[in-house]
Structures are given as structure tokens and as C-alpha cells.
């Protein structure tokens, strides 16, 4: 057992954790910063997911860090490219040396008497290590790494083919010449289908209900042209600002004119399908952006459908047989491999048990303050990204706010900050309540709550969050300092 003290201790060395550490290195260079990472590598999601075709579902100019722009013409980058970008960023800011790998954080306890956190973590041999910290930052995302969500399927025990979840893709899986059924209709399923269809005998995407799909070019032709006449830094900076504006305009249009945006999206799908599949299989019953919009590069999903290597079924699983999936409609899908792309399990702080002065605190019962701090929890931040734009846009704003907060506390010679919500502010809504996805409905109890208004309510609006997190006064009367 060992004990180490840090001024700031970050849990998680994925995109959010690396970004947080880089912001601290630039804005608070004198602080001792540590990172606990449960796995043996940095990168989080982008190191964990290894399924064929894995890529971003947000454009990289906004998915990249504001302090280190994405300097490539790829719009939707592949997983290895994103992982390299994270590693290169960590190297440039000397972050990797801060990481304690193979440390699964299990408990975080705040002591008001000592004004510090005591954090327990287990290494891969099961030995416990203890760390202390003045400030704690959770950068673990919002899903459980150990296991994805798999529904209970009748007869699954009898299935003699391969049954896998994309979160744990077997490195030696061979799908060439085989019949593959991908269950799901989210970004993972729509990434897998064209990638598998290149060599599989046939790939069927089996969806319970359709989702909206938007095809975008894989390469930014405008930036490519501008690079001939302008400096690269200026071109990529412009691409980032342009895409932030376009994202916001699309989302706001969907909220204000849902029928018009729906008609535009479906018109694009109709053109790409060219009769290869029914438009009904791409016509959701919900309005645009009440669930996350799926983006595909260069029409690859539609190309696979038109080429005959893939097809779409809208139905539900009734039961499995040794060699097939039987559907509620009575149809049968023969399968050698079934990929269960049915989403993930929600989890906050990587499942860490939290307590303040010995009193257990459930993050799922606490309101967020400015989407960053937690009501009644001293010296702690939890970084969450956007659901209606690139994850990193919000995470980077939150990281800058944490740096502002710590610097202000130094100037004022205070050591502890605690958000205190007024009486009657709490609601039952979770921070992802605007997203009506199945995984949110299943696990919303795990997520922090929202308040009725002000800094206790998550805005999901980049232009508002920029002002609130980067410009508004730190001391607004809702934070207690001592």
C-alpha cells in the first residue's frame, strides 16, 4: 500500500482526463496533478473500442481540443487516428508521466477536518493504494467500461454461432464469408454494417425502431482549398468555428421547426437509398435530435445497402435458435455471428463510492452546478460533454472553468468550495433528460439531477456555456468558500 498527495487528482485518462490535465498544465503550472487510470493505456473509449470501422460520430474540428486543434482534413476520423491525437496531445503537454495506470478507483471520501479527499484504488493484483487530494475531478464519462448493455434474449443459450458486444470485440474474430446480424440502430451499428459488409456474405441490421441518418463528406474540401492560400492554423481554426456554428444552427432548427428538419433529413436518405431499402426503415417516430443524430461518412451505409451486401430489418427479436434469430413478425434471420450493438450501461465516476464526512452521497441524487460541480460536494468536479454536439466542446469549457475556479481560490486564499442550492430548486430530471434514448431511460437514475433554472440546469447550449463558464464571476452567491 502506498500514499500520495496531489493538489488535483483526476480520475480517468481518456479524452476528458487528458484535456483536463493539459488545461491545468497551461493555466495552473505550479500544482501537483495526478491521474488514476483503471486500464493499462490512455485513450478511454478510443483505446477500449476496437470493432471494425470504429470512428467518431462528431466532426473532428469540434471534437478536438480547443487548445490543440485537429489539424487534418478527416471530418469523421477513425479510432486509431483519434487515439494517436490523444497520445500526441498528452506528449506535447507532458501528461503521460502523471498517470498511474492499472488503478481502479473504488472509493473517494472527503474529510472536512482535513479539507481533503482520500481516494482508494485497487491495482491489477487486488492490492489497495491510497491517495489524497485537495481537489478531485471525475473524467470517466458516463458509461461502464466493464460491460455493455445486453438485453435478455429468449433461447440465446442455444445459439451456436458467435454472440458478441462491440464494447469487447474479439481481436481474432473472422467474419469473412459469414452471415452477420447486427442488432441495433445507433452510431455503432451504422458504423459496423458497412465495415463488415466488405467481406461478409451478408450483413443485416436488425433495429427495433429507425433512427435519423445524415451523410457527410469524410474529407473537408473547403479547408483543403483554403490550405493553398492561408496558414494551416488559420484554416483549421476557421473550420472549428464554422462547424460549431453549423452544429448549433442544425440543433436549433430541429427544436424550432422539427417537421421541416425531418423532411430535409428524410429527403437526403431517399436520394441515397435509391430504392435499395424502404424509407420506412429510416423514418423515426420521434422528432429530430430528441435522440442523437447518426452521421455516416461518404454515404458508406447507403453504398452497402445499394450494393446488396447489407440490408435493414425493422422488427424485434422473439427468440434465438441454434443457427438463427427468429423475429416477432415470424421472419427468420440466419446468422453465423450476432453483434449486439444495443448500447451501454450508464455509470458516473466509474462506479466510485462517494462520501462526505462519512455520509454516503449518491451522485444520481445530486444536482449539478453549471454542469460541472455537484451540490453539497466540496472541492470536486465531474466533467460531462454535450449530447447535441461534440462531447469535447463542453468538456473543454468545463476544464477551463475548473482552472478559473482554482486560480480564483488561490487569489482569495480560500481552500474549500461547496455549491449550495436554494430550497425548492431540485427536480427529478437527470442531466440527459433532453435525450430520449433507450440507454438514458434505463440508467437515468445513475446520472446527476437538474434544477429548475439558473446554474442548476444544464443548458446544452455552447454559446450560453461559454459565457457562464468562462466569463461570469466565480463568486455568484451560490458557492460557499472557506
UniProtKB/TrEMBL annotation:
Q: Name one Pfam family in it.
A: FMO-like
Entry keyword annotation includes NADP: yes
GO molecular function (one): flavin adenine dinucleotide binding
User: Could you tell me the superkingdom of the organism this chain comes from?
Assistant: Bacteria
Per the record's keyword annotation, is ATP-binding included, yes or no?
no
UniProt cofactor(s): FAD
Q: Which PANTHER family match?
A: MONOOXYGENASE, PUTATIVE (AFU_ORTHOLOGUE AFUA_8G02570)-RELATED
* The name this protein goes by in its record: FAD-containing monooxygenase EthA
Q: Which organism is it from?
A: Luteibacter yeojuensis
